[in-house]
TrEMBL record:
UniProt keyword annotation of Cell division present: no
Lineage of the organism: Bacteria, Pseudomonadati, Pseudomonadota, Alphaproteobacteria, Acetobacterales
Residues spanning the signal sequence: 1-26
Keywords assigned by UniProt, alphabetized: Signal
Domain (PBP): residue spans on this chain: 26-253
PANTHER family, alphabetized: EXTRACELLULAR TUNGSTATE BINDING PROTEIN
InterPro entries, A to Z: ABC-Tungstate_binding, PBP_domain, TAT_signal
Domain of life: Bacteria
Protein name: Substrate-binding domain-containing protein
Amino acid sequence: MRLGRRLLFAALGSLALLGAVPGARAQAPRSITVASTTSTEQSGLFGHILPLFTQVTGINVRVVALGTGQALDVARRGDADVVFVHDRAAEMNFLAEGFATRRYPVMYNDFVLVGPAADPAGAKGRDITAALQAVAAKHAPFVSRGDRSGTHAAELRLWKLAGIDPAATGQGWYREIGQGMGPALNTAAAAEAYLLSDRGTWLSFRNRRDLQVLTEGDARLFNQYGVMLVNPARHPHVKTADGQAFIDWLVSKAGQDAIAAYQIDGQSLFFPNAGDPNA
């Protein structure tokens, strides 16, 4: 009789375990991978908005923070569900290649030229090309991210507008470090060098030492961010529904309000503009 009971309990226990497996799988946490820029992470924006998104949807977000060019490459390989970057030309190429079918504008801020408070190059002002020409003329130390990021692409466009090829004429004053915005700012602060930074990361950066914003307000310093779902036709494993849910939330009133609410010392780091057809 005791042996019979033991066998019965063992059988019931096995059935309970078997029954628990499908249920456990059904309750596994939902998650997506977002390839994004270092500025969205290092500025603290993701730390502010992602918990709000997860609270509403139950979807966790894993961020791969790289320069825009590298983030787009991650998405091309199918190693991300969503890409959230800030280089419109590169984003349009990504679309043209068929790795996404739609780009959504999300928000903007601007770039600033920072440098030592003494401003030995005389770069202070509103005209960014004049500022870069002044830096090059004095051979003042300049730190470039050199990492194919959106900021690096913007910097190269601005040098071109200034009529200067710093890689060819740098003569030791132009230094490419191949790293993100935070390390670039640390390097510039330590070397008392000039640097192009996105305003969001600059405002969140605390190790400024003697660095100050010297050039700002030029329309050519505008910095737009866009988001795209990786095309499931190219990579069938993409989590289409959950990735689109993230995009839909970003461009919704709730997501746009969350972006607008993120401030440091009373200053907004990003400005939502999901409804702008020209962004």
